[in-house]
Amino acid sequence: MTVQETHTSGSTSEMVDRRTDRETRLAVSERRYRSLVDAVPAQAVWLANPAGERLEDAPRFRQITGQSFQAYRGRGWLDAIHPLDRADTRRKWAAALDQQSVYEARYRLRTAAGRYRWFGAYGVPVVEDGVVIEWVGTITDIHAQKVLEDGSRVLRHANGCHRSRCPRLPTGARSTC
Known about the structure:
Helices cover 50% and strands 21% of the residues. The protein is an alpha+beta fold.
């Protein structure tokens, strides 16, 4: 075997070792990502292409909405959003895409049971060399929080109306309002 042959075979072996090491690191990274997706408190994780279309399946999202993959795909996920929230959600999503910025929205999502629940959506662009290569985001069920916020707002309003009709009374006095 010549020196050149030894060098060539050593280079091939090193390349195979580096490729195997890279594949192993990639597999570990993929497992970490999947574990993180399963561990986050979000109800669903979604991915979108640079144009904002959902092309990959999001089984948890579809489980929540009861949509088929075909119905969910592209911009079909918007069909599961309450009609009164849909235009605002579209506007926020379009602005995030246009500005390549964080996407945040709150909307009522139709569940597989046919009822609406409040969800918070959050998404970010994945940028490589200054170019958005995809979007990744989550939706989280915030229904209980939203109902409490709305209830609290109603109570504050009712309390304010009551106070405006019944000025503060001396301690111990009873209101006749």
